[in-house]
Amino acid sequence: MHTTTLRQFLGIFSPRFDNNPKVTSRNIHYHLAPEQLYRRLTCEYLPEKHIESTIVKSVWYGKTRSSARHEFILIEVEDTQFNLKNYIVLDRTPSETLARSKKIFPAKATSSGRKYWGVALDSFRVSYNGIEKQFLQECELWPRDYLEKIEFPSTEPFFLYQLAALAYVISEKSPDYVVAYRNCYWFAGLIWECMRQLQPNGVYDDRLSRNRGKFAVLRYNPGIKERDEICAAFNKEITSVENRLSESRKVCQLRRNKMYPILLIVALEEAFK
């Protein structure tokens, strides 16, 4: 499969990045559920997928200035092999219908306030052109403040498939949107704390961290126990992924070795025409 086509299939880098003349300004960002992105990246190993060169370069913890004070994570992703970069938003909202019809505000964590509003819409929202402001405006996340930032060193890369696995584990653990304690603050905050725990050598900037998880007089912070449970579940999941990719990589290499003599003959025939 052609590299460009496969990149488009994976949904990480737009055909716009390949200077495709057919791409128009009408294209907008698109959604990938955590499980969807996770499966696409890890179901099997293919060199064309670039999973070993698609890294999370940095992440920002964002908070909108709107009345709901929605919190999200902005991801700067990079394909180091082709020097491509893009932006992805990772966040939790109620179902699309509910989100469009109501303004969502957190509730106090009491038995009367634990309103269940159906399955949460956890998603990776992928920019179509890599322009941050336009992307956030489309996502209705502008204007925003960045409260914290983590830059991951190239010597210890944090791969996108690892972040997808982490988001998948959290979504599977708590798939429902509950206003009091399974909202955007909980989702973004738990992912953030797990990233800091799993990637301790990241360069951390806590410029406005005191405002994270804060809504009026309320404060939502993930607990250490919950963070550690998620990290343990992630490590178990990622071990399974690495084993699966390792076996798939061997099969892929065997196929390429068998095809090598044929490809060599074809190349020689072309060279001597």
In total, how many beta strands?
Answer: 11
Shape: globular
The oligomeric state is single chain
Binned strand content: 15-25%
**Biggest sheet, strands in spatial order?**
1-6-4-3-2-7-9
Helix-strand topology string:
HEHEEEHEEHEHEHEEEH
Structural class comes to alpha+beta
Q: C-alpha Rg, in Å?
A: 21 Å
Distance between the termini: 26 Å
- State the helix count: 7
Q: Sheet bearing the most strands, described?
A: 7 strands, antiparallel
Low-confidence stretches: 5-9, 16-25, 101-113
**What is the percent of helical residues?**
25-40%
What layout of secondary structure does this protein have?
Elements: H1 3-10, E1 30-32, H2 34-42, E2 54-64, E3 71-79, E4 84-93, H3 96-101, E5 116-119, E6 121-126, H4 132-138, E7 144-151, H5 160-173, E8 176-178, H6 184-198, E9 203-205, E10 214-215, E11 218-219, H7 224-271
Helix pairs in contact: 2-5, 5-6, 5-7, 6-7
What does this 3D model show about the protein?
By secondary structure, the chain is of the alpha+beta class. The chain has one domain. The chain is built from seven helices and eleven strands. It has helices at residues 3-10, 34-42, 96-101, 132-138, 160-173, 184-198, 224-271, and strands at 30-32, 54-64, 71-79, 84-93, 116-119, 121-126, 144-151, 176-178, 203-205, 214-215, 218-219. Strands 1-6-4-3-2-7-9 form a seven-stranded antiparallel β-sheet, with helices on both faces. A two-stranded antiparallel sheet has the order 5-8. Strands 10-11 form a two-stranded antiparallel ribbon. Strand 10 (214-215) and strand 11 form a beta hairpin. Helix 2 (34-42) crosses helix 5 (160-173), helix 5 crosses helix 6 and helix 6 (184-198) crosses helix 7. The longest helix has 48 residues, at 224-271.
